[in-house]
Target: PspA/IM30 family protein
Amino acid sequence: MGIFKRLRDLTMASINDMLDKAEDPVKMLNQFLRDMEEDIAEAETAVAKQIAIEKKFKQQYEEVAEIVAKREEQALKALEAGNEDLARRALQDKKEQTANRDEFKKQYDIAKENADRLRNQLSEMKDEFSKMKNKKDLLVARAEAAKAQKQINQAMSGFGTDNAAKGFDRMSEKVLQLEAEAEASNELRSKGKSLDDEFNALGKNDGVDDELAALRAKLAAKKQAE
Model:
């Protein structure tokens, strides 16, 4: 496929090499696509030049073809006018112009064939670029998922380790110690109550005794009524 195939093959080899060595595949994929865009831009310039050559030969061919037809008409008019010498000279120029026409036609055909081939190759490059862009999006998504998984794995590697478990055990022992100290403090406080405090406690009424007495009175009244 000429220069375009070589460029594409070189680019494909480059991406594989870059991805093998890349620390950040996403950055390298973006760089690769930028390189492809540059290749396509250069290819478009080359195609434009070839198309210009094709059009030039086509124009020259058409102009000379018109001259050939014109000389034949002029030779016919000269004969009709009885001027054989003028007709001869018209036919002689027609012969020379016919040779030029045939050469321009040959060059035009070659230029058109080259331009068509380059157009097709450029189209293939653009199709390949489009495929690579889609593939790049997929690879980027996979790379981001892999990075996220790696981060989670690193976080999980320090999560729930022996150190953390031992720390929880120490805190549990600390809480038990605090609870024991609180209970001991309550016991000491109870033992330290004065005699007056104990008598005051005996005199306290939480209201249950009063309710109980009322129920007894109600029950006695009910029995008397029977």
Remarks:
- The two ends are 123 Å apart (CA to CA).
- Helices lie at 3-21, 25-80, 84-157, 162-191, 195-203, 208-225.
- The mean pLDDT is 81.
- Residues 3-159 form a domain with the Helix Hairpins fold (CATH 1.10.287).
